[in-house]
Amino acid sequence: MKGEAGSMQRHEKPKQEGHTWGSMRRTAFILGSGLLLLVAFWNSATWHLQRFWGASGYFWQAQWERLLSTFEGKEWTLYIIGVTQVPNLLFWSFNGLLLAVDTTGKPHFISRYRIQVGKNEPVDAEKLRQSIRTVLFNQWVISPPMLVLLYPILKLWGDPCRRELPTFRWFLLELAVFTLIEEVLFYYSHRLLHHPTFYRKIHKKHHEWTAPIGVISLYAHPIEHVVSNMLPVMVGPIVMGSHLSSITMWFSLALIITTISHCGYHLPFLPSPEFHDYHHLKFNQCYGVLGVLDHLHGTDTVFKQTKAYERHILLLGFTPLSESIPDAPKKTE
Ligand SMILES: [Zn+2]
Ligand SMILES: [Zn+2]
């Protein structure tokens, strides 16, 4: 793919634009059918999981009620802890570990799994410091007002701190819906951010890192943070009128997943980060999270011809994919 280097700065192929509306209709149809199928098979699909969950459901209900009585009359505080402190603590614990590897290159066991070999070895300390400042700004200045605003909106549907926890089945259904909504909102807002005007003014910042690391998941212009990072994740719980427990789990999961997709290591037994890593490398491919919409809009066609695509699998062993599927030494094109 050496010839690709010159086209790195191109944002869109003009001929893709004509297909966009047709593809969007197709997308709506396929997502709609997918949702119908999901509902149709929901009971049988979740029956086993619900059984597995079984008695521990009562355990969690009891824990939640204990928490509620501790925070009686201060549900708002409980809400703020649930939507900010818990997800952020998990984010920084995970990123702390990744940063230790990024800055020291140790343990070697982990750095062997680096996707873009030779990049960030070691990571530029000054660039990292600047980036972390932006991440903290987004996390502690931009996000909180949005999350404060989310509370009364959620209350329109039902109290997020209500006594009854959602069932495990309901929680799984919520996760499926949250994921679909995030995919749609993230894909289109992200593609819009690649429009030359928005790209220059807003999204370029996030792309300063062509070989991303974990914390870069939240390294973005404030407008991008609102539109592309926060809203796609917040809309799901509003649509579903979710319980605080679901929201906390979802926000935490979303932060962990986005960290993994930016971390720069294709680690065993974790979701593959190849897709978004390739987006950072090439700019005009792989805009989504799951890749469904990229498939439908044809924004992953170049990606599909690469070694990165062959490596875009769940690694179920300990041999790094850069070793088992090495880059071709030369391409005869
Ligand atoms: Zn990114
Ligand atoms: Zn982008």
TrEMBL record:
Residue ranges occupied by any Fatty acid hydroxylase domain in the UniProt entry: 176-299
GO terms for cellular component: membrane
One of the GO biological process terms: lipid biosynthetic process
InterPro entries assigned to the protein according to its UniProt record, in alphabetical order: Fatty_acid_hydroxylase, Sterol_Desaturase_Related
Subcellular location, principal: membrane
Keyword Lipid metabolism: no
Gene it is expressed from: FAXDC2
Regions crossing the membrane: 28-49, 76-101, 135-158, 170-188, 209-227, 247-267
Pfam family, one: FA_hydroxylase
Cell location: Membrane
UniProt keyword terms in alphabetical order: Membrane, Transmembrane, Transmembrane helix
Organism: Ailuropoda melanoleuca (Giant panda)
Region entry Disordered, spans: 1-20
GO molecular function terms noted in the UniProt entry: iron ion binding; oxidoreductase activity
Regions annotated as coiled coil: none
Ranges of Basic and acidic residues composition bias in the record: 1-18
Protein's name in the database: Fatty acid hydroxylase domain containing 2
Signal peptide boundaries: none
Presence of keyword Plastid: no
